[in-house]
Amino acid sequence: MLKELEKLGPKKGVISQSVKDVIQSLVDDDLVSKDKIGTSVYFWSLPSSAGNQLRNVYHKLESDLQSSKKRLVELVDQCDALKRGREESDEREKALAELKVIEQNYHALKDQMGQYTDNDPAAFDAKKEAIEIAHAAANRWTGVAIDQGIAYTLMVLALLLTYMIH
């Protein structure tokens, strides 16, 4: 059937390749059905199938809407439940003020402890170990670089000698 459609296309002024592309896009969008029977491939579309597809989409959207409404009601209830017990009162304001004072005190103590980290034996040992590792790495890379420099110089010298001899 596809071959027949491709043959009919140029007679009506349509490029045969575009016929194939349009039919494939219609099949992909489920607007046209396709079935292979033997060696032939048949395409068809029934008016009721488009209506069924629209009904299926409508029912899916309706169910999504219902679930969204249900979720909205749940979230509003949860929000109301969380607001209970948080009404403005003198007791709540005192508790919030006390919490703020405690947080300020905590941050002040934390800053004060930060001033003494330079004298912390554990921090000192960690810095000492890091310095030793960095020192070893620097010596390792410097040694490699010097060895490579010497090797390069010797190679250039050997090339010059070879050039002078020949």
TrEMBL record:
Tagged with keyword ATP-binding:
no
Taken from the UniProt entry, a GO cellular component term is: nucleus
Q: Which residue intervals define the domain Mnd1 HTH in the entry?
A: 2-47
InterPro entries reported for this sequence: AGP16/20/22/41 (IPR009424), Mnd1 (IPR005647), Mnd1_HTH (IPR040453)
A Pfam family this protein belongs to?
AGP
Q: Which UniProt keywords apply?
A: Coiled coil, Nucleus
The record's principal subcellular location, in a coarse class, is nucleus
GO molecular function, a single term: double-stranded DNA binding
Coiled-coil intervals: 58-119
Q: Which GO terms describe its biological process?
A: reciprocal meiotic recombination
- Where is it localised? Nucleus
Q: Which family does it belong to?
A: Belongs to the MND1 family.
Q: What does the UniProt function comment say about this protein?
A: Required for proper homologous chromosome pairing and efficient cross-over and intragenic recombination during meiosis.
Protein name as catalogued: Meiotic nuclear division protein 1 homolog
* Natural source organism: Quercus suber (Cork oak)
